[in-house]
Design a protein that fits this description.
Elements (H helix, E strand, L loop, with lengths): L1 H20 L14 E3 L8 E4 L5 E5 L4 E5 L5 E7 L6 E4 L2 E8 L4 E6 L13 E2 L14 E4 L5 E5 L4 E5 L4 E7 L8 E4 L2 E7 L6 E5 L10 E4 L3 H5 L5 E4 L5 E5 L4 E3 L4 E3 L5 E3 L17 H4 L9
Antiparallel strand pairs: 1-7, 2-3, 2-9, 3-4, 4-5, 5-6, 6-7, 7-8, 10-11, 10-17, 11-12, 12-13, 13-14, 14-15, 15-16, 16-17, 18-19, 19-20, 21-22
Length: about 300
């Protein structure tokens, strides 16, 4: 009996010492499965990788950056660090290293967790897909959608002006370098810019709730009618019969929100606003409501 109690005491002491000995060390990371390994050589990442849904990662070590293009057409640039033990990128505030499976599939591995956008453990394979790399300066000037809603973009000052018949506003243009791309900072949400293939038109992809303003496709001011008259313009529905893509006959643009196709062939939100594309444009000169200096009304 005494021997049993003595052995129990020794065991308890050993367990106590074992627990204390690791108090100053970080916990070890989970073991990588045998058919996977952590990428340590940046040359293995160099180039383009695509996911099944159409997202693209493009690593450019010489520039110290990567590009991430989503299936919806949003393209962003972020920091790519190859100076450490493993190559890492910074996406939306989180660092990622990478795991490569034996079958050639690349898995981004997010370090930490939170409410940020994530592509943690999305599957990517080698690809020659096109990545549309563009600069906000290419959009300098004045743009309108089919409703006449107007945007003035100034990349030098990273500011924009916005006009409808009922409202005039202004705001900042932001590119946080977080891999998500440039956006217009609007009231309560970010409106990410999704250009066409030749950067001669664009749509906005809001990341929050909107009132329906500034939807559709924006074309150079005064030229909207020439673009909206292209043959082949159409909406594409998803499995829930919501309008998810709009093609103007040249480029396809992703549609955020809940728009349904009506008998007139146009897309409407459930609360009323029409998607500003697919019909003859409304002729609108902001000077009618906001004065002749509206293009330069920077305050």
């Amino acid at each position: 009996m005494k021997k049993t109690l003595w052995l129990a005491a020794v065991l308890a002491l050993l367990l106590s010492l074992t627990a204390c000995s690791g108090g100053g060390e970080a916990p070890s990371s989970p073991a990588v499965p045998e058919d996977q390994r952590q990428v340590t050589d940046a040359s293995e990442l160099e180039g383009k990788w695509s996911s099944p849904s159409g997202n693209i990662l493009y690593f450019v070590a010489d520039e110290g950056c990567y590009y991430y293009q989503t299936f919806s057409g949003r393209t962003g640039q972020g920091r790519y660090d190859t100076s450490g033990d493993v190559p890492m990128i910074d996406f939306d505030g989180f660092l990622y290293d990478f795991i490569l499976r034996d079958d050639g599939v690349l898995l981004p591995n997010q370090n930490g967790s939170g409410d940020a956008e994530s592509f943690d453990h999305f599957t990517f394979t080698r690809s020659d897909a096109r990545v549309d790399i563009w600069d906000i300066a290419q959009l300098d000037g004045v743009w309108q959608n089919a409703l006449g809603e107007t945007l003035v973009i100034d990349s030098q000052h990273m500011e924009y002006l916005s006009y409808t018949r009922l409202s005039a506003g202004s705001g900042t243009i932001v590119d946080a370098g977080d891999g998500k791309g440039p956006y217009l900072s609007m009231d309560g949400f970010h409106a990410y810019i999704s250009p066409g293939l030749e950067t001669d038109r664009f749509a906005l992809l809001p990341d929050g709730k909107t009132n329906g303003d500034f939807s559709g496709v924006f074309y150079p001011y005064g030229q909207v009618a020439a673009y909206t008259g292209l043959p082949g313009a159409s909406f594409e529905l998803d499995e829930d019969d919501l309008c998810r893509w709009y093609s103007d006959g040249h480029d396809a643009f992703y549609i955020t929100g809940s728009y349904t196709l009506h008998e007139d062939g146009l897309a409407y939100r459930q609360d009323g606003p029409v998607y500003a594309a697919g019909f003859d444009p409304v002729d609108y000169d902001p000077a009618e409501d906001w004065g002749e200096n509206w293009m330069n009304n920077w305050g």
